[in-house]
Write a structure and sequence with these properties.
Layout (H helix, E strand, L loop, with lengths): L2 H4 L6 E7 L12 H18 L4 E3 L12 H14 L3 E2 L7 H9 L3 E7 L1 H10 L16 E8 L2 E8 L11
Parallel strand pairs: 1-4, 2-3, 2-4
Antiparallel strand pairs: 1-5, 5-6
Helix pairs in contact: 2-3, 4-5
């Protein structure tokens, strides 16, 4: 049974935090490998965690380069398959407001964010993040923050996806 279903009516919160999928050496979108990962994510995430109740990506309309569009591209197949609303109201740097908004939720939340800002999200959720680092070539990690009775804990795991490099279309 999925976590979101088990926690119905409870106050537990599980936040799955991941980086966008692979990007090309130049350009602002996903690479073919990243697109393939995005297409494989729904099956992997739902099997591991169930369908999330909430999904967050940074706002793509901040007047900056479209780099934050990668996060939306990463989550789009999951959102499409399960008809999920994607919250894109927070700028990539606005991690404290994001964490505050998420903290008011229950169930499972998926956050797809820029890897350099993930540590700030973790810290704003109550995890000591001083020694945490997301490697620049790591597109497979998942950081899971669980909040139970107001106490936060962190678990690190992996998607386990080995996406092919080439585009199949």
């Amino acid at each position: 049974m999925a976590f979101a279903q088990e926690q119905k009516g409870g106050d537990d919160l599980r936040i799955i935090i991941m980086r966008h999928a692979e990007k090309p050496a130049n350009g602002d979108n996903l690479s073919c490998k990243g697109f393939n990962r995005a297409m494989m994510l729904p099956g992997v995430l739902v099997k591991k965690f169930g369908v999330p109740r909430y999904v967050y990506v940074p706002s793509p309309s901040t007047g900056k380069a479209t780099k934050s569009g990668r996060m939306l591209q990463t989550v789009w197949p999951l959102a499409t398959k399960y008809n999920l609303t994607v919250n894109s109201k927070f700028d990539v740097e606005n991690t404290k407001a994001l964490a505050k908004n998420i903290s008011n939720k229950t169930g499972t939340v998926l956050v797809v964010w820029e890897h350099n800002a993930i540590r700030s999200i973790i810290a704003a959720l109550g995890i000591k993040a001083d020694k945490l680092k997301w490697k620049s070539n790591d597109y497979d990690s998942l950081w899971i923050v669980s909040i139970h009775n107001g106490k936060a804990s962190l678990q690190q795991t992996a998607q386990g996806i080995n996406a092919p490099d080439g585009c199949r279309f």
